[in-house]
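The instructor's notes for this session suggest beginning with a concrete chain rather than abstract definitions. Hand out the sequence below and ask the class to guess, before any prediction is shown, which regions might be ordered.
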Amino acid sequence: MQLASSFRYGSPMLRSDAPLSDDQIRRVAPSIFADGKHESRSERYTYIPTIDVLRGLRNEGFQPFMVCQTRVRHDDRREFTKHMLRLRPGSEITGEDVNEIILLNSHDGTSSYQMMAGAFRFVCHNGMVVGDNVRDIRVPHKGNIVQNVINGAFDVLDGFELIREQKDGMRAVTLDRDEQHAFARSALTLRYDPTDAEAPAPVTESQLLAPRRFEDRRDDLWTVFNRVQENMTKGGLHGRSRSGRAMSTRPVTGIDQNVKLNRALWMLAESMRQLKA
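After discussion, reveal the predicted structure:
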């Protein structure tokens, strides 16, 4: 499953523990407040600013907690470029981890409105993307966009019960040492090509499994999955480059790459849960 758009390295991003205000969002992603479509769009393109859609979602109880906008090379596209919001329904504001709806859009023709399911874990500030068990919702720029996006958000919301079942199922599964290493070994292959002898993975399975905090010293699948996910996406692990030079792994900051890796890790963890059931 591919994201409908591509974000460049170093995209402006803001995440908060409280719902974001319009002023906070505007500072990071002015394209959400664009007052018109890009000149490249035809008359058939129905322009509805993302802020109008966001206000409609707020009226239905959804609040934004993260915003991101891609960098652009040409200033004439900055006010229309691709942007992303992560929102939570009112029932998902607190807890050890919460489900989120990821909303993507642009006004320069590079993407439609798109929604997918995500999850956020407070202890490590990890923003995960759920596997393909909850389908993506895409809304083209035509017709009653605001209502169609709101309907799509509730469609994603309907899939949250399945996500809860999967998370609870992972918490109920205990992995022994060999199983944990098998999971980490499989996870490494998602980012590093195991067939490339000239560029082996710069870090080991044990490094992916190392907990960064006391709360993560547990052996259930959900905790092991989160340890591996955090170590892979946040980087900072010391290793060796292909030339043998000491290096540290880089965080996965590209939105497309992050989504792809997160989804693959979720599906890997879900496969392990089913094997252990």
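Then share the key points. The chain has a mean pLDDT of 80. Residues 172-276 form one domain.
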